[in-house]
Structure formats: structure tokens, C-alpha cells
Design goal:
This protein has about 375 residues and is of the alpha/beta class. Helix content is about 45%, strand content about 15%.
Length: about 375
């Protein structure tokens, strides 16, 4: 009687733990994203406004800094899947005129081979699958082309990025607005490395020629990977020339991995800069997300963050629930294995007996 109760309790507990595991996984893989979706405050837009979806520091994972083999494959797959779900929901909630990637698109773009870079680009296109009719604007980050610490920003890296994502310095005109894309990574160092001087000089030349490229009747928006405050003090002169030429109403940047709103006054120009947080859960911050900006023809702005769910707490919940399933299901699984072994043994014994009887009958004949 006791053994039957014990067996029944373990079977029920194992079934309950399996149901719990399914619920936890469903919440972690789907439910938490929809919960975040319903908390987003999406501003109203119109056909005249410029509607921007801002993505920063996606850090699509590479190979060098990930575990080798199957472990690395799983971590890359999970990170890509997280980014894909987040971007898909963002497009569901908002219809942008342009999607702007504010740099550090790849985690190992600067140090990857040409073959790996093409693979990263393919994964990027799959993750950030943007419908036709929506402009795609990509800013170069230090993880994409180098330029930070000892990682040199070479012409080869810049050329490779430009082939896949367009010029690193550009003016894009949309509706009554003009977006000035600047390679702000060139202005990160006080003195660029020798290998970086060509790219640095091209950025300075772009700044010098900006006045002839801009339309005075359009509202100017400045975008770059680095916030203005992260640009080297030794680059104050190029920065001042850039701001005076662009006369930005607003600026958007990334790099910091956390959100911030910065007020700037450079010379006679006053503007607001919005720093967009990372959208990757791998960056060690709890403030993960994207952002939306709706710019009115009168120069007004409605800016809204799109917080994304944390990932690591759910990994912990998966592990705890799985351990509970294993502990509660172990006696039942052991009993099941014993039953299967006995069944197979009995069948094998039965076959041997049948063969023995047949042999005896043959001998009797």
C-alpha cells in the first residue's frame, strides 16, 4: 500500500513539475516579450512626421569570444533569436520611415575575417528583417571598424563595412528632414594611429564640405555611434565645425549601453542628444531596449524607450525548474527503466524457452 502511494505521489509530482517547466519556458520565450510589448508607450505619428526606430549596440555574436563547439552555437542562436523577437515586436508596434542602427552592430566585426563578416551580415539581415519601403541607415561603431583601445580603424575595415552598409559619413534626406551620419569613432582618439589617418582625414574633409551638402530649409538630425561627451577634448575644433555646419535640432547615439538624455550647448548651437541603450542582453546591463522618435514638421519630438525583458533571470528559472523535474522524476524514471529491462529480459528468456522446446521436439522425432 505504501509503495503504491509513494509511486503515485512521484508520478503526480513529476507531471506537475513538467507542466511548470513548460509554463516557465513559455513565459521566458514568449510571454515576457508580449508583457513588455503591452507596456510600451508608442507615440502617435502622422504622414508628415519623420518616424524613426532606433536600434543600438546589437553586438551580434562572433566566434573568438564565444565558447567553441555546440556551446557557442547555442549562445549565438539564443542571442540572435532574442534580437529577432524584439525587433519583430518593435515593427509590430510602430511603422517607421527609417530604421537606424547606431553602431556596434557586430560584437567581433572589426576583428573578424572577410568570410566571417559576410556571415555576420547574413545573420544581421535575418534578425533585422526590414520590409521594403523602410529606409535602413547603419552607423559604424568601434566593434564594427575598430578605433577604440588597441584596435586600429584601418582602411580595409572601413571599406568592408561601407560595401555592406553604405558610406560611414553621409547625408540622408527624408521628408522635410536631413540626417547627417558621422563616423564619430574617428574623433574618439586625441591622436589617431598611423593606420587610421586616412579615414580620419576623410571624416575631417566630410565635415569641411558639409555646408554645401545641406539644405537650409530642412531640419537637421545628427547621428553617430559616440555621444558628443565621449569625443576627445583634442577633437574640439572638428566637433565645433561639425555642430556649426549641421545646426542639429536633435542627435542620436549609442555606445554607452544604457539610456541617457543629454543637453548640449556648443558655440551658439543648443540641442538635445538621446543615447539609445543596447538591445542585447549579453552586454551586462539590465537597461536593455530600443527607442522610437517621432519628429514633427514644427521641430517637435516625441521620444519613447522600448524596454526589453531581461534574459538571465529566466535562464536561472529554467535551470531550477529542470532540476526539480529531474529530482522528482528520478525515482519514476528509474522504475520505468527497471520495468523496461525486466520486460526485455522476460521476452529474451521466453524466446530461449521456445527455442529449447523446439529442439526437444526435434530430438523426440
Amino acid at each position: 500500500m505504501f509503495s503504491k502511494c509513494w509511486w503515485y505521489w512521484h508520478v503526480c509530482a513529476f507531471k506537475i513539475s513538467l507542466v511548470l517547466l513548460v509554463i516557465v519556458v513559455a513565459v521566458g520565450e514568449v510571454g515576457c516579450f508580449w508583457w513588455a510589448f503591452f507596456t510600451w508607450r508608442v507615440p502617435d505619428n502622422s504622414s508628415d512626421s519623420l518616424n524613426l526606430l532606433l536600434i543600438s549596440d546589437s553586438h551580434i555574436l562572433g566566434y573568438k569570444y564565444e565558447c567553441p563547439g555546440m556551446c557557442g552555437y547555442i549562445t549565438r542562436l539564443d542571442s540572435d533569436w532574442y534580437l529577432k523577437k524584439a525587433f519583430s515586436l518593435a515593427l509590430t508596434s510602430f511603422s517607421p520611415d527609417a530604421v537606424i542602427h547606431l553602431g556596434d552592430i557586430f560584437d567581433e566585426g572589426s576583428i573578424g575575417t572577410d568570410y566571417q563578416f559576410v556571415e555576420y551580415k547574413t545573420r544581421h539581415d535575418n534578425i533585422f528583417n526590414t520590409p521594403d519601403g523602410i529606409s535602413r541607415i547603419h552607423v559604424a561603431g568601434d566593434n564594427d571598424i575598430g578605433g577604440e583601445w588597441s584596435d586600429s580603424m584601418t582602411e580595409q575595415k572601413v571599406s568592408r563595412f561601407s560595401r555592406h552598409f553604405g558610406s560611414i559619413n553621409d547625408v540622408i534626406k527624408l521628408k522635410t528632414f536631413q540626417i547627417v551620419k558621422i563616423n564619430s569613432v574617428s574623433l574618439l582618439r586625441g591622436r589617431p594611429f598611423k593606420a587610421e589617418r586616412t579615414t580620419y582625414n576623410k571624416t575631417l574633409d566630410f565635415i569641411e564640405k558639409l555646408p554645401s551638402k545641406l539644405d537650409k530649409d530642412k531640419i537637421s538630425i545628427l547621428i553617430g555611434h559616440l555621444p558628443v561627451t565621449d569625443i576627445s577634448e583634442r577633437q574640439a575644433v572638428p566637433l565645433r565645425k561639425l555642430i556649426n555646419a549641421v545646426q542639429p535640432r536633435y542627435a542620436f547615439s549609442g555606445h554607452l549601453h544604457y539610456p541617457a538624455t543629454l543637453q548640449h550647448k556648443i558655440g551658439s548651437v543648443t540641442f538635445t542628444e538621446y543615447v539609445v541603450p543596447t538591445c542585447s542582453y549579453r552586454m551586462g546591463t539590465n537597461m536593455i531596449g530600443a527607442a522610437i522618435a517621432v519628429l514633427g514638421v514644427d521641430g517637435s519630438i516625441q521620444y519613447s524607450a522600448l524596454p526589453l525583458p531581461r534574459r538571465y533571470p529566466f535562464f536561472g528559472a529554467y535551470l531550477v525548474t529542470l532540476c526539480i523535474c529531474l529530482v522528482l522524476g528520478l525515482p519514476w524514471l528509474m522504475s520505468l527503466m527497471i520495468f523496461i529491462v525486466r520486460l526485455l529480459r522476460n521476452r529474451l528468456t521466453g524466446r530461449k524457452c521456445c527455442l529449447l522446446i523446439l529442439k526437444l521436439k526435434e530430438c523426440g522425432k
